[in-house]
Design goal:
- By secondary structure, this protein is an alpha/beta fold.
- It folds into two domains: about 210 residues, Rossmann fold (3-Layer(aba) Sandwich); about 140 residues, Rossmann fold, CATH 3.40.50.2000.
- It has 14 helices and 16 strands.
- Strands 3-2-1-6-7-8-9 form a seven-stranded parallel beta sheet, with helices on both faces. It has a seven-stranded mixed beta sheet with strand order 12-13-11-10-14-15-16. It has a two-stranded antiparallel sheet with strand order 4-5.
- Helix 12 links the parallel strand 15 and strand 16.
- The longest helix has about 30 residues.
- The chain is globular, with a radius of gyration of 21 Å.
Amino acid sequence: MSRIIYGVSGEGSGHSSRASEILRHLLESGHEVRVVSYDRGYRNLSPDFTCLQIEGLRIVSVDNRVNVIRTLWQNLIRVRVAVSRLRELAALFKQFRPDCVITDFEPATAWFAVRRGLPLISLDNQHRMRYMEFKVPHRLRFEQWQTKLIIRCMIPEPDVALAITFFRGAVSNGRTFLFPPILRREVRALQSQQHGFHLVYLTGSYDSLIGLLKQFTEHRFRVYGYNRHDTDENLEYREFSGDGFLQDLAACESVVATAGFTLISEAIHLGKPYLAFPMQGQFEQQLNALCLEELGLGMNAQVADRSTLDRFFARLPELAAHAEARRAAGGDDEAHGGGCAIEVMLDRLLADDLGLLRQYQCQHRGRTRTAI
């Protein structure tokens, strides 16, 4: 069995929820694993897994737009702590002596792997933007190029890329493999219902949308993200609770939220129409919303205004029918998003003293040296 360091991005909850499923599989298979994460990822994973806390990039948004100045400041003020924790990470590599590294868009572990000549697997939804072909409107071409550049700077080219996606396209190399979204077992256990409210989930303040929802008095909205537990007209605020949120996700008529990959994937699994407000300045969310709309499972809303909400509620029966048909058909995964296919691929890569993974590493690193 192998010793594995698993780096997990701490931004949001999607990376850690996916990693928790993969980690359970790796441990059940007999591998020895050390997790490296920060912020929400560390808080979510440390109770159940052996986990080292480091520092990582954090994004600050205001009214659903990335605030560049505040994002830079929040990251700069933690530089001293970040350096100290990188030393702890170096010590972990020296003491644990991993056979390989898996990264879910966590840069430090990925760069340590390459510097030490260790095989590197990326397992995330970001690498579909690096290696999968898809169409984007002209207005997003610069953001697309910029995002690819950022991914390349953050994560060195992996030996194998296991890319999670709910929308399929051709891949650009023979080391990239596409898989359906990995859903938590708690999500897979849910039964979809209809309890007459719409679920609103916001990862940062989005006051203009909140004010707009109040105008639709014929609808009830259950709102997460404001750390409140009270009622304001047709808005029912809820403090975040993992179980409570999932129960509301299963019971809602639709989801109104930013365009995060994990929540969209869970909504698709449960057959919930989705009104996506992609965060401005974050290309991945723009892409998620475009793909969602192309699949006919929701709407890509660029502006929070009354006409957008009017169109969504007018189209809700049509979108609900498409979403339910996909749910009933089991989506595009024989395990209904359970991660079965990607776990099989991981088992192949890690079998026989990482034989297949080392083959990919030799092919990749040899090609890279030749190109240089």
